[in-house]
Model the fold of this input.
Amino acid sequence: MKKILEMNHVQKSFNDNTLHVLKDISMSVSEGEVVSIIGPSGSGKSTLLRCATLLTEMDGGELLYDGEYAAKNDADGRSVYSGKAELKKIRSIFGLVFQSFNLFPHYSVLKNLMDPQICVLGRSKEDAQAKAIELLGKMNLSDKAEAYPCQLSGGQQQRVAIARALAMDPQILFFDEPTSALDPELTGEVLKVIKKLAEEHMTMVIVTHEMAFARAVSDRVIFMDGGVIVEQGDPEDVFGAPKMERTKQFLKNYGQS
Amino acid sequence: MDLITMLKTMLDGMGGTCAIFFLTLLFALPLGMVVALLRMSKVKVISSITRAIISVLRGTPLMLQLIAVTYGPYYLFELPVAKNKLVPVVIAFAINYAAYFAEIYRSGIESIPVGQYEAADILGYSKIQTFFRIILPQVLKRIMPSVTNEVVTLVKDTSLAFTVSYVEMFTIGKQIANSQSSFVPFVVAGVFYFVFNAIVDYVMGKAEKAMNYYQ
Done:
């Protein structure tokens, strides 16, 4: 299966190298695969996602999308990023759904979905609108096209954010704790949408604290702690019969084993 | 001098007042944005120099700056004093107000959550698209009350032009008051500034309301 994302030996420190957040992380995601990343707070999973989406620069390690280098190591093992043009092309491969939605508050829902298509992809207004309306339908938000983000509930905003990401036709979609900012009764509607995408074999990487959800939708689960991948594999194995003591401890705290 | 003649004479000066007001806004509003961006520059030297200049402009009286711009060239380089005083007056006003606007813009730009930049970045917007399409519209909405404050102050500050004998309404009013030993011109001037600002308030209020379609 074609590898969409490949990360090799990723290193990242903060505070002048005193806070080592990612210690030699290697992972890859194949086309159509749904990967969940779980782990305690501060384990480095969000930083890993930020490195993968070029929001944070890695100190060391390689990052590849669809076989193309976004960053490769120099002789000293430091990450060297590709040129502006290549990175722009690589950015079009992935999308990201944020914990805090980050919709554009001055745009209507419809414009939030249309503007990037027109400005970045150069789509015509008609095509962008058709795509936006189709996606809003899929998110059960057809009646909210003219609303502004501030008029929507958190769950609705997050579904708009997912639609906005999908409108750019990414080959891989990242989720950074997509339900953590939501009231418990609103998480369900967002998880349902992500589940639907998983059934359509959308390639996804999901950082989440929703263990039951991760278990249900993932093809593979990665458990991170202390900046390393402690354990990964089939969700039934990781959740049902974890091999590592750290994993057992963590899942016990979440009441999952 | 009867009241009608007085009003007519002072009315002639209102053109000068309006000229300072509108020309200052015309130059200071965009110049302030340039200054704000220089102030936020990642190049330390540029941001430090800009900060120092802003600090001088905000820390010294506008009246002093008016005198410096109008007569400075004469004292420093023996250049003739400008015949049309509107030029140095508008230069001094525009630079001074740009410094204030720059700080308002900066606070507005810095108040936009970093998530807005990150979302635009992920979607593939260029830096320029991000600024003009995503950031600036939100900044304008947030800074409207502060800008209104400055504009109201500007209306009243135009009277400072009398210090370099630029002929505007207040200069004329002062002359009439002196020659006629009358307090009436000052009352007229006061009413004029008040009405001017009432209009400013109304217009800016409308603009603020127009941006209230989102939060």
Notes: The CA atoms of residues 74 and 80 of chain B lie 6 Å apart.
